[in-house]
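TIGR00266 family protein
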Amino acid sequence: MEYDITARPSYAMLTVSLAEGESVRAESGAMVSHDSGIDIETNATGGFLKSVRRAFGGESFFQNTFAARTPGDASFAPPLPGDVEHVALSEETLYVQSGSYLAGDGGLDVDTEFGGARSFFGGEGLFLLRVTGSGPLFLSSYGAIEAVDLDERDSFVVDTGHIVAFEDSADFTVRKVGGLRSTLTSGEGLVCEFSGSGRVWLQSRSQDAFLSWLIPKLPTQPSA
């Protein structure tokens, strides 16, 4: 599978070139275009129960599989302005935050895993997406995306709204910014402190921060 990412980092679009018999699985609504020799199959990925768990993780209940009868291209884009990053998995596991899975090889296993209170209070919901196997994976971000190597640091603190994904070799804890007063007055909420080894992918913008800026500026409806 060949791929090309254009218009990055602000309005990135992914184009994959599929050989005959190859397939790519993408989030519902991510398709921009495809050649006529590519068939689309929509299904509840991994069966009904797995799809229910994916829905709790913030992803769509259904996914689309694009399979090439003849060689051709298919293009995808995320719903928010930002970047797309390719990650080559080789019998590995990556944890992906809600909304950052764009597409991946049809052979990758995409499931959810209960994250306990750490992920719940970190704003990730009760479930994180767990992507396992070998093949290309494409992550999307709000804003630009950057990978940070934890091996070069004792620990690394990230605002939870800026996390895109992390390798399963990384340890993490979610905590407040200092005490209650600091949390309320600093403009920051909860942070995730990573340690161990592996990589963490970050996005340069936060949806929560944007909504906090936008919502007070929206006009209010006059009372009846």
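thats it. The chain has four helices and 17 strands. The first strand starts at residue 2 and ends at 6. bye
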